[in-house]
Amino acid sequence: QVQLVESGGGLVQAGGSLRLSCEGAGRTYAVAWFRQAPGKEREFVAAINRNNGYTRNTDKFRFAISRDNAKNMVYLQMYTLTPEDTAVYFCAARQVGAGLTVPSSVGNDYIYWGQGTQVNVSS
Predict the structure, then answer these.
(1) Are 104 and 33 in contact (CB under 8 A)?
(2) Which of 14, 35, 72, 79 is 20 to 30 A off residue 121, Cα-Cα?
(3) Are the CB atoms for 109 and 44 separated by under 8 Å?
(4) Per-residue confidence (pLDDT) for residue 50, from 0 to 100
(5) How confident is the model at residue 60 (pLDDT cuts 50, 70, 90)?
(6) What average pLDDT is seen over the chain?
(7) What's the confidence (pLDDT) of residue 17?
(8) Residues 6+ apart with CB under 8 A from 78
(9) Pseudo-torsion of CA 84, 36, 63, 122, nearest 10°?
(10) Which helix (H) or strand (E) holds 65?
(11) Cα 4–chain centre separation
């Protein structure tokens, strides 16, 4: 059983940057970031596979995903934040094989989920 813990959320002014962390998934797991704002459905942000390939939402050119397998850590670096980025951010993981694969952007594909970290971007 994998336990994921997000951290790094908080209050940031518009135009600022923030780095979120997800701890708990090792090198054999693909990891994704999703977010959910009040009254809205969960939205895919980015995902990374075990070979460091990645997928991003086309609206998220300002976001970068990376990982450090030695530390069981995955990061989401966010730049030039706006109030529209305000949401609870979740990381999710699924075990994958050693072959090349495109990380999934579908939430139902992921088995393990963290509890989320709140990001608030003020005007």
Answers:
(1) no
(2) 72
(3) no
(4) 86
(5) low
(6) 93
(7) 97
(8) 17, 18, 19, 20, 62, 63, 85, 119
(9) 30
(10) strand 63-68
(11) 11
Q: Which residues contact 6 (CB under 8 A, 6 or more apart)?
A: 20, 21, 22, 89, 90, 91, 114, 115, 116, 117
Sequence length of the chain is 123
CB 92 within 8 A of CB 112: yes
CA dist., res. 34 & res. 89, Å (int):
6
Query: Residue 35 corresponds to which tokens in the numbers above?
Result: 């977010």
Strands 18-23 and 5-7: antiparallel
Q: Could you tell me the CA-to-CA distances from 52 to 15, 37, 39, 80 in Å, in that order?
A: 28, 28, 33, 24
Which pair of structure tokens corresponds to residue 10?
Answer: 């908080």
d(CA 119, CA 18): 9
**E strands along the chain, which residues?**
5-7, 10-13, 18-23, 29-36, 43-48, 54-56, 63-68, 73-78, 87-95, 112-113, 117-122
Amino acid at residue number 42: R
* Residue whose structure tokens are 């942000």: 45
Q: Is the dihedral of CA 76, 42, 38, 83 positive or negative?
A: positive
